[in-house]
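Dear colleagues,

As part of the handover before I leave the project, I'm documenting each prediction I ran so the next person doesn't have to rerun anything. This entry is a single chain, and its sequence is reproduced below.
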Amino acid sequence: MVLETLNDSARTTALADEAHALMALLYPICRSITGDGVRQTLDHVNTIAPLRRTEVPSGTPVFDWTVPREWNIRDAYIADAAGQRLVDFKQHSLHVVSYSTPVRERMSRQALEPHLHSLPDRPHAIPYRTAYYRETWGFCLSQQARDALGEGPFDVCIDSSLQDGHLSIGECLIPGQSGDEAVVYTHTCHPALANDNLSGIALAAVLARELATCKPRLTWRFVFGPGTIGSLTWLSRNEGRLGHVRAGLVMGLLGDSGPLNYKHSRRGGTLIDRAAALAMRDHGGHELPFEPYGYDERQFCSPGFDLPFGRLTRSPNATFAQYHNSDDNLDFVGKPALAGALQALGSVVQAVDGNQRFINLSPKGEPQLGKRGLYGNVGGTGPGAFEHGLLWLLNQSDGRHDLINIAQRSGLPFETLARGAAALQTAALLAPAPATAGGHETKAGGLT
């Protein structure tokens, strides 16, 4: 069974420490939907989970979108007449609206004011703002700093470039025993936001490396790309083989103190939905209905694809006070939250990769488990969890019920049933059911 290591709390604690260290390394890098910051980020991820890099040229058509020009920034500031920097990009990368065009000008407070962004209801925090698809510029600053600016004049500088280049996507491919695929997507486009961006990147990297040490049944593909335009670009380049995708998961926002939340796919009732529902049951999380707002799951679940993609977060986007502002820093992310998310992710991967249907080869009454060493030697007490799982497996294995279904009905953990199924197969009491027995075809052509 894959990822059994994530059932070990000591191992997940160590991995959470490693993930947090990677987040600290990536935090100072200014990322956007394109540019050198994204490539630097992928370089660091590559040291943990080897990546194949794809560079897609600016101007490439992507359905109703176009890959934009590449944006890079070297410096930016607002300085007073004496040259003192009052707002400084080098102190915090959120100070500049992402994709700001170059500017170097002396201006009054009145002229500068339309280009300033702050949060009156959170006066100490710097907001995160973007201008990806319209040429403009701006600065983000705390409301306190904005109130203290004075009337100017100010020297305003944004030393940036916006020119033809590339959009960067990294993929870590873990071959399985089957050509059928599971896809994990995490966005790489947010600067200096620890929970919303870095927690997804770091956990995806360590999860991919752990999975690479196993022998998964499915082929697993971990994709690191910018939000919206990244997933759309990946879809456009892989449209011919999407029929092999059996499950997909968008992950991020996994380091805060909120409970886990799984958002169902558009289609509902798919393999990923059922696997994640089990994980939420076992890890104290919640299930959320699909809605066409959020992260990249809305691209994978658009009606032209309708892929079986869900999303795993802790606090969902736009539901916590630190969302898209400078309070989403490394102190906001807890290592225990990262470890708990890894355990839940391990449960999801186990259920997606290991879900099967079986046929009971001795269906007339219960077979005698004791003589096969599968039941306790002393009677008169109730069965333990493993023995109870064996009974459930034998009773439900008629080719119509898969392991997830049995786990849901019995209340037992998926991993307990997976171990029991392996033991019953060794004892020649179970056999895998034919691939289509009791199943139904998804739009992607696979059994859910």
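Residues 4-67+167-354 form a domain with the Aminopeptidase fold (CATH 3.40.630.10). Residues 181 and 219 are 5 Å apart (CA to CA).

All the best with the project,
I.
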